[in-house]
Amino acid sequence: MIPALLFGAGAGAGLWLLLTWALPPSPALSDRLAQVSARPPATPIIAAAEATWVCRWGRVFVPGLRKLGLPGTKIEADLRVIGRGVDTHLASKALLAVAGLLTPWLLQTLLVLVGLPLGVEAPLLAGLVCAALGFVIPDLGVRTKATRLRREFRDALSAFLDLVWITLAGGAGVEAALGDAAAVGAGPAFDKIRRALHTAQLTRTTPWNTLRRLGEELDITELAELAASVSLAGTEGARVRASLAAKAQGLRTHQVTDAESDAQAATERMALPVTVLFLGFLGFITYPAVTQVLNGL
Fold first, then answer.
1. Nearest-CA neighbor of 175 among 200, 212, 202, 203?
2. pTM reported for the whole predicted model
3. Domain of 130, in residue numbers
């Protein structure tokens, strides 16, 4: 009964995805009017790259997953940080789920050919577990990589603040200080900052507005705070050199705290293998004595 229900649910979900792709529902009149009256969204500063072959093989599943509200606001920000497109991410989730669902059945086919079948329940349950893991693993990988890249961005941002502060102390203007500081640095973080400043020049907007947008797109609050401080200097004429120096010092303190936390966590993780090694060595030493005592009884 349970395999029949699971097969029916899987077949129904597959048919629903195919119908969603082949016959997309027409939007309501209120949605059409809202699209006409709404202002066009701003073009993202960070352009995400799409993997062609992944989108080609998994594009059937993308509309259905988007209708389910995937990938979510947080994952979208993480995807912008690592430079991966949303369609590529959704297609990879679907392809890994399908591969996880079919792999146990392929193994079952090989076992049937050699005369060692396992029955229907084992590959069915294993396929469901592998499909769930394949659907979740891309999100975990994106979050891990985005966390690392955000930390590297904050490290580069502290150096950028120091450069801006030094340039302002030399008598340069706010926009010139931002441009000169961004031109000196190297790395992915400085590339994103230079792209934001270049976008400000092309769109004839203030650089602090594009930096604020970049901080919102990447979900980096420190960059938005920098934009707010610089905007005061650009619009109100405030002296922000001391504020930028304090922010840079705060970021470096945060870096040191994170490094100490990582070192402490690594030390705690090393306690388990050392304990297991000690127990194994202790058993290796006491085994002959225990064997002699048991044989003497």
1. 200
2. 0.71
3. 2-21+44-149
